[in-house]
Amino acid sequence: MLKLKTKKDNLLHRLKIVRGQLSTIIEMVEKDTYCIKILNNSRSVQKALKQVDMLIMEDHLKHCAVDQARRGETAKLVKELIDIYKYK
Q1: Residue 1: what pLDDT?
Q2: What pLDDT is stored for residue 3 in this prediction?
Q3: How far apart are CA 60 and CA 81, in angstroms?
Q4: What fold, for 9-87?
Q5: How is the chain split into domains, by residue range?
Q6: In this structure, what is the dihedral angle of CA atoms 13, 18, 23, 24, given to the nearest 10 degrees?
């Protein structure tokens, strides 16, 4: 089994898998594959991207957000988090 060294390596690995899955979906559309098969693959990509988002958000909260709060940049921190939540 492949062992990844860092969080960044882990994220890049996951994103490259998603890129491959997305390429497969494009090919499926080009070949007029059955719609439900395309949708199932699309949902898998969406789920994988949500997992990537959660890893990034977790790291942001543990590091960047804490640093912003310590520097007294709470207004910026709150705005960023609200903007991300709105995007959800």
Answers
A1: 46
A2: 57
A3: 10
A4: Methane Monooxygenase Hydroxylase; Chain G, domain 1 (1.20.58)
A5: 9-87
A6: 110
Question: Which segments of the chain does DSSP mark as H helices, in order?
Answer: 7-30, 35-59, 66-70, 74-87
Label residue 9 by pLDDT band (50, 70, 90): very high
Q: Which residues of 13-38 are buried (b: 16+ CB within 10 A; e: fewer)?
A: ebeeebeebeeebeebeeeeeeeeeb
CA 86 to chain centre: 16
What is the per-residue pLDDT across 14-44, written as a single tens digit (0 to 9) for each? 999 999 999 999 999 999 999 999 999 999 9
Report the alpha-carbon distance of residue 51 to residue 35 in Å, rounded: 24
